[in-house]
């Protein structure tokens, strides 16, 4: 599933292309994308809308429209957006939606497993929608080590499970949780509330460092994720533990191990990240 760095990469690529453009035509080809709202209603409502800004909140892409409404896109497992400046997107059996802009450009949405969603919300619905689903932005100025400490305090759940909870911290998924915990030298099964202050500070720094590096490298391309121009990210070439079972730890040389935490495959170094 695309995580914060992947969605932020998509946002940065699309913003200069979409902002200021008007949606001249909209086709939603899969009713699952907008359900329970009929796709024709959403498509008709998008036509004539001018894109004011393209933003991100956690793993959600927010296309703010001049009418005050926002198209909320969640890529989930296999969703991706493809952009063609001259309207030359090739045929795609997995295309679920297509927007034609007044610039002549096309924006296509493809999704192999069809878990992604498009929701058109007014401001009055957008705020509670996000508030119920998304916690603080880990790269925001207000996300301090002290705030992370308050989020973790008293929680018996494994630290990785808390990092994956989007209501606690926005945008962190399986890849960047494992990478951050390795950087911080913290075992993924440690009870979140049991971290001492120095560990909280290390983890806070590690989360931000892992996410920033992911953005610098335009995300991780493992299967479905690509940038809007069809390119790959390269963060996967710098993984320290994720997906590296049996390989030597970059720091101490011990073999990376795999376990399951919160139902998710989890990679860690047993020497650097002792329980």
Helix and strand layout, with pairings?
Layout: H1 4-18, E1 23-28, H2 39-46, E2 51-57, E3 60-65, E4 70-74, E5 79-84, E6 95-101, E7 106-111, E8 117-121, H3 123-133, H4 145-152, H5 159-164, H6 174-184, H7 197-216, E9 257-261, E10 264-268
Write a structural description.
This protein has 275 residues and is α+β, with helices and mostly antiparallel strands. It folds into 2 domains: 4-133, MutM-like, N-terminal (N-terminal domain of MutM-like DNA repair proteins); 145-268, Orthogonal Bundle (Helicase, Ruva Protein, domain 3). It is built from 7 helices and 10 strands. The strands form 3 sheets. A 4-stranded antiparallel β-sheet has the order 1-6-7-5. Strands 2-3-4-8 form a 4-stranded antiparallel β-sheet, sandwiched between helices. Strand 9 and strand 10 form a beta hairpin. The longest helix is centred in the C-terminal third of the chain and has 20 residues, at 197-216.
